[in-house]
Specification:
Layout: H1 4-11, H2 20-37, H3 48-66, E1 75-79, H4 87-93, E2 98-103, H5 106-118, E3 124-127, E4 139-145, H6 150-159, E5 161-172, E6 182-186, E7 193-199
Parallel strand pairs: 1-2, 1-4, 2-3, 4-5
Antiparallel strand pairs: 5-7, 6-7
């Protein structure tokens, strides 16, 4: 089990001063993830320190860049949330956000509900495909990471945004659908992965 101090140390390249309360919540999240991952395939990464860096760190990094682009009390959709990345760490970093985690696989959605319950979060878990959400549901930001068929997902994500909403994708290599309103930020500790931010 990683100490909260070690979690804060591992997060430094992504979040230089992680608040103690955030590290405590991430410690609980990590414990749940490791226990569930032993019987349900939530993530291929098994090493706790690598989980903190790749999953928690990169998600928090995205949250830092998203925050100044969002209005107060913004609504965020995490598209194909899986084990909760990047949506749950962003919720922990920015508690005033209203975050919806969309996950179509029942076991993963059950895990997400368990983390939300354990951390006493207001986060919504949507069990189902984003395409099946009511057509009038719109968000100020949509995040995507490691989703199947990224091009199709990006098109659906764009339809879920309010005007001037922000699409944030964590991907390797070139920016999907680059435009004058796009920003590409290299992720720390990797030469091949980027945070892409798009104003729609």
């Amino acid at each position: 089990m990683l100490s909260e101090a070690r979690i804060a140390e591992l997060l430094q390249p992504y979040l230089p001063k992680a608040p103690p309360a955030l590290c405590a919540s991430l410690s609980t999240y990590l414990d749940l993830l490791l226990r569930w991952n032993a019987r349900t395939n939530l993530t291929a990464i098994r090493d706790p320190e690598e989980i903190v860096r790749r999953h928690f760190g990169e998600s928090l990094f995205a949250g830092i860049y998203l925050h100044p682009l969002l209005p107060p009390n913004a609504m965020l959709l995490d598209f194909g949330s899986g084990a909760g990345f990047p949506g749950l760490p962003i919720q922990l970093l920015l508690p005033d956000l209203t975050v919806t985690l969309a996950e179509s696989q029942g076991k993963k959605a059950s895990f997400l509900r368990e983390v939300v319950r354990a951390l006493d979060l207001k986060t919504e878990v949507w069990l189902g495909r984003v395409e099946d959400m009511p057509s009038d549901r719109r968000f100020n930001a949509v995040t995507l990471r490691a989703v199947d068929n990224m091009d199709v997902a990006l098109a659906e994500a764009a339809r879920r945004l309010h005007p001037s909403g922000v699409l944030a994708s964590l991907t390797a290599a070139a920016s999907p659908n680059p435009s004058p309103t796009s920003q590409r930020v290299p992720l720390p500790l990797t030469a091949t992965s980027f945070l892409h931010l798009h104003r729609i």
